[in-house]
C-alpha cells in the first residue's frame, strides 16, 4: 500500500463514516486544479440523486458533499491526476474500510468539474 493510497483511504474513511443521506444513486469525485500550483489537485466527493450515463450533468445535483474538506493530490498534469485518481478509487472499492457505502450506489465516477466524467464502477 502506497502512502498516497493510505492518505486517500484515511480521508474517505472519515468522510464516509457518518450516515449519508438517503436517495444517493451515484457518487462522483469532483477534481479541481489549484490556481497557483499546476501540480496540485483537490478531490471532493459528492453523492447525486440520479445517475444516467447518457446525461453528462447527472452529477450536478448533490444530496451529499464533502464541501471544503478536500483530499489534495500531487500529479504531473491533469491527465495523470485523472488516471491516478481512478486508480485510487478502484483500490478503495476493493480494500477500503467503508467501501460498501460506495458499492451500494449505482455508479462511482471521477472527473474535473468542467469536464467529462469517467465511470470507475457500475452495478
Plain-language structure description:
β1 and β2 form a beta hairpin. This protein is an alpha+beta fold. 30% of the residues lie in helices and 28% in strands. The model has no long low-confidence stretch (mean pLDDT 96). It has a domain of 75 residues. Strands 1, 2, 3, 4, 5 and 6 form a six-stranded mixed β-sheet that branches.
Cα(first) to Cα(last) distance is: 26 Å
**Mean pLDDT reading:** 96
Total number of helices: 3
* Classification by helices and strands: alpha+beta
| Low-pLDDT segments | none
Overall helicity:
25-40%
Shape: globular
* Largest sheet features: 6 strands, mixed
Rg over CA atoms: 13 Å
Q: Proportion of β residues?
A: 25-35%
Task: List how many beta strands DSSP finds.
Answer: 6
Following the backbone from N to C, one meets helices and strands in this order, namely HEEEEHHEE
Question: What are its keywords?
Answer:
single chain, 123 residues, alpha+beta, 6 strands
